């Protein structure tokens, strides 16, 4: 399948070498509601299709040698959406990651991690996500981070609350606080910084997603709505990444 996609894209396979895979890809899964509206369907239909794409997307990323993939499914700001839509997202999240479906994550060596608040979602969502974490804990293939009730602002608030508490309890000195320590207290502490951040749906903003982790990420925006985002689209994003010059602030002499 991959070679067929290459032929259709006319990609130079020597330049896009999967012997040098991406380490960490993050995707903002945007456009579900607009996709459904175009088809005269309710927005919830789009969210359902979006959730159903997650597993196949992770499997394809794993085939490309990607070690970590983080998917933005529900933000801390999404609670402001209509109650019917939010309720559906909670119900379907608990369904798609439930006992019935978790075996395929285990069998395909996918390590599942939930990043985000755990105190505000319904108990059924919390149970489903935490049970899948426990069930796949020993997997060492690709790591899937599901960002659910996640926001960078809230994440950083939690980090500094913890560090200030450690200061008050004399477990830490002011001079001990540096970037490495901050990073080690993020939700993504087990994951390297983002190499490639993809946003589907046509919008060109980060929407409070992995702001610190994406400081030097290459950004890729596509008008394709998430339910229509296929392997071909993923490879186009990878091709774009491979053709970029990542200098990290440096300039060669």
Characterization of the model:
The longest helix has 17 residues, at 152-168. This protein has 253 residues and is an alpha/beta fold. It has helices at residues 2-9, 32-38, 43-52, 54-63, 83-96, 99-107, 123-135, 152-168, 179-183, 231-242, and strands spanning 24-28, 68-75, 111-115, 143-150, 196-199, 218-221. Strands 3-4-2-1-5-6 form a 6-stranded parallel beta sheet, with helices on both faces. The model is unreliable at 1-21 (pLDDT under 50). It is built from 10 helices and 6 strands. β3 (111-115), α7 and β4 form a beta-alpha-beta unit. The chain has one domain: Decaprenyl diphosphate synthase-like (Undecaprenyl pyrophosphate synthetase, 3-Layer(aba) Sandwich), CATH 3.40.1180.10. The relative contact order is 0.18.
Kindly list the characteristics that best describe this protein.
10 helices; 6-stranded parallel β-sheet; Undecaprenyl pyrophosphate synthetase; alpha/beta; EC 2.5.1.-; disordered N terminus; metal-binding; 253 residues; 42% helix; globular
């Amino acid at each position: 399948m991959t070679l067929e996609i290459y032929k259709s894209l006319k990609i130079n396979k020597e330049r896009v070498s999967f012997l040098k895979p991406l380490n960490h890809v993050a995707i903002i899964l945007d456009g579900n509601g607009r996709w459904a509206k175009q088809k005269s369907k309710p927005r919830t239909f789009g969210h359902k299709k979006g959730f159903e794409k997650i597993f196949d997307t992770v499997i394809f990323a794993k085939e490309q040698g990607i070690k970590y993939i983080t998917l933005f499914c529900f933000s801390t700001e999404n609670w402001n959406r209509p109650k019917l839509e939010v309720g559906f997202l909670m119900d379907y999240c608990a369904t798609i990651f439930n006992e019935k479906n978790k075996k395929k994550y285990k069998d395909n060596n996918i390590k599942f991690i939930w990043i985000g608040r755990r105190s505000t979602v319904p108990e059924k969502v919390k149970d489903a996500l935490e049970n899948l974490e426990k069930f796949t804990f020993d997997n060492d293939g690709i790591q899937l981070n599901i960002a659910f009730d996640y926001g960078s602002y809230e994440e950083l608030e939690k980090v500094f609350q913890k560090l200030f508490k450690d200061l008050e309890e004399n477990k830490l000195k002011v001079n001990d606080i540096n970037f490495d320590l901050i990073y080690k207290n993020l939700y993504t502490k087990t994951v390297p910084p983002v190499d490639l951040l993809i946003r589907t749906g046509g919008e060109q903003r980060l929407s409070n997603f992995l702001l610190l982790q994406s400081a030097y990420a290459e950004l890729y925006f596509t008008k394709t709505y998430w339910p229509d985002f296929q392997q071909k689209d993923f490879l186009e994003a990878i091709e774009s990444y491979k053709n970029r010059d990542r200098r990290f602030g440096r300039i060669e002499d």
